[in-house]
Amino acid sequence: MAAKGPLKLKAKGRKGSKGSSSSSTSSSKYELFKDWTNWSLKKAKVATHYGFIPLIIVVGMKSDPKPHLFQLLSPV
Amino acid sequence: MADLFPPLVTAQIDDKPKVDEKVDYSNLPCPVPYEELHREAYMSLKTDNFEGLRFDFTKGLNQKFALCHSVMMGPTEVPSQSPDTTIKIPTAHYEFGANYVDPKLMLVGRVMTDGRVSARVRADLTEKLMVKANAMLTNEPHMSHGMFHFDYMGSDYRAQLQFGNSALIGASYIQSVTPRLSLGGEVFWAGVPRKSGVGYAARYETDKMVASGQVASTGLAVMNYVQKVSDKVSLATDFSYNYFSRETVASVGYDYILRQSRVRGKIDSNGVASALLEERLSMGLNFLISAELDHKKKDYKFGFGLTVG
Asked: Where do the segments described as Disordered lie (chain A) (predicted)?
């Protein structure tokens, strides 16, 4: 009974691996896509966190009439 | 002699168009956006009362671009275990912000001393399609959130699609049924607590009053009514009922818009009375006083502030 156990597990393991190998390409593609979107969202979050306010300042300094750099920095 | 008897006939002709105006169902006005259904009621009933000192300085660099600095000092509430006690921690922070406002593009960003950035973007892609995004980003992992909205404005309807982080999807639609009545509905699906919900709303407005109601499958039913008593005074009342937790809140409020100041106040069935006064001391200088008395929890908040620019 004890010997049958590991045999059954091995059979299951082999079946499992055979089943996954046929769908492994599609499942791994999905995994890759999910990983890629997570990576890009993390980078986008960092970029927005540090770059959003400088972006507004750059866009604002280019608008007409162009304000001076002195007006940006002075407290008055 | 002819002046003593003004022609009566012309007076009657002036009155007729008002009475006989037929409803042109193909030419209905565009309704308010779904999230602004209760706009008039919440102007008096959900004012942003604060506690402590608030100082805002807005410096305009040109018509479209402005920088703002604001300082806030006061106790901030921390959620506590028991609902009876409120824990307050005194904090002070400085916030720097930049605004760029264009008819087609609006960018608003704020950054605080603890590194939190709040960003709002609104862009008109075409005349009818508008994209809005807002995000609150922090340095702590998994505490940031953001939402995108796509709004389409038709001739007498508005449709909106929303996407948020942690798999939040929502859609809403509102349609003008008569020149005064508009009906709408919304659907949302939240991925993290796997919940979905449906809601319906209706809004009836005339020149003098606005009545609106909203029901949602999350258990919340809200009805409110605003009466514009005169140019300077409007009164509002609101009733909200949660049919799962059986909590009801009713409130009555007023909004006085005077030449130099604006006073808004309300009283609640939870024993909360609050008021907010904004006084224009001179051009560009506004003084604010806020008070909120919660008699049930014995929590009294008073704040004052100054807004320059």
From this structure: 1-29
